[in-house]
């Protein structure tokens, strides 16, 4: 059952990539975004076409009701402001002291407009709230409500370049993971600042974490510090865990 599901998602990804290839080859004959023709805005064409070609065909991960919300364990780093805990980081300790008012997410790499975003700035984007099930590779699951900004909106705002293929997430605790553009533009891939109607708590990644609902829990990076858009992905290497872990 589970295996079948994974195969289905792989097929979707492969056809997705060939669609992007077709989009790039036929770009001129397809409807173009208003920024078409501006070399710095080529990323807009890519996202515009790719989103329309792909996203409506992509299945949403199941969403639940308020009554399904469960208790939620915190794993991995649970407080980078605590020097007695793994993942301690001095910059994070300072942010925590300032109640995250000085926090700024950095968006860098293959984007026309690299930039820093405070939580206030992120909250000005249209938000998305979703109640989803988190699945950890260690074998537990839990359901919570997440509120945040769709990553695709932010990437469009930053203007991703044509060579952009991966989104690399870096956490304050030195944790890192990456996803491809198909998952990055999935409507349920959000940068969450809220959990169960409150600000995201420390143990779950305050002030901002990724929620990648199409993949297993370790892709949902907590304590986001930087997002680097690139033509190559960060491979966490010898950990033995797969890079792509669709659920
Ligand atoms: N920065 C960071 N992000 C992380 C981790 C971590 O240790 N550090 N652990 C990952 C793993 S394995 C899981 S299951 C989830 C756990 O999220 P939770 O602590 O909110 O349950 O976060 C993921 N993201
Ligand atoms: Mo996990």
What's the architecture of the domain at 61-230 in CATH terms? Answer: Alpha-Beta Complex
The CATH homologous superfamily of the domain at 61-230: Oxidoreductase, molybdopterin-binding domain
Rg is 18 Å
SSE order in H/E notation?
HHHEEHEEHEEHEEEE
Structural topology:
Elements: H1 2-25, H2 42-54, H3 90-97, E1 105-109, E2 115-117, H4 119-123, E3 128-135, E4 141-150, H5 151-158, E5 166-171, E6 176-180, H6 181-184, E7 190-195, E8 198-199, E9 209-211, E10 224-230
Parallel strand pairs: 1-10
Antiparallel strand pairs: 1-2, 3-4, 4-7, 5-6, 5-10, 7-8, 7-9
Helix pairs in contact: 1-2
Bound molecules: ligand MTE and molybdenum atom (MO).
Residues 72-77, 136, 171, 173, 175, 204-205, 217-218, 220-223 line the site of the ligand Nc1nc2c(c(=O)[nH]1)N[C@H]1C(S)=C(S)[C@@H](COP(=O)(O)O)O[C@H]1N2.
Textual characterization of the structure:
With about 250 residues, the chain is α+β, with helices and mostly antiparallel strands. It has a domain at about 60-230: Sulfite Oxidase, Chain A, domain 2, CATH 3.90.420.10. The protein is built from 6 helices and 10 strands, in the order αααββαββαββαββββ. It has helices spanning about 1-25, 40-55, 90-95, 120-125, 150-160, 180-185, and strands spanning about 105-110, 115, 130-135, 140-150, 165-170, 175-180, 190-195, 200, 210, 225-230. The strands form 2 sheets. It has a 5-stranded mixed beta sheet. Strands 3, 4, 7, 8 and 9 form a 5-stranded antiparallel beta sheet that branches. A hairpin with a 5-residue loop joins strand 3 (about 130-135) and strand 4 (about 140-150). Helix 1 packs across helix 2. The longest helix has 24 residues, at about 1-25. The termini are close together. It binds the ligand Nc1nc2c(c(=O)[nH]1)N[C@H]1C(S)=C(S)[C@@H](COP(=O)(O)O)O[C@H]1N2 and molybdenum atom (MO). Ligand MTE binds near residues 76 and 204.
